[in-house]
Amino acid sequence: MANAFATFAADGTYCAPISIAEVDNAQGKKIGGRHPRASRTP
Asked: Is the pTM of the predicted complex or chain greater than 0.85?
């Protein structure tokens, strides 16, 4: 339900929910994570 409202608020752009977007080590270097997939809804 929340994702439906998020798509509406984002002007029709749907992004699949993910739990972890980015993981950095103590030095600030990215060591993991995923980029959300976005698509335009009709």
From this structure: no
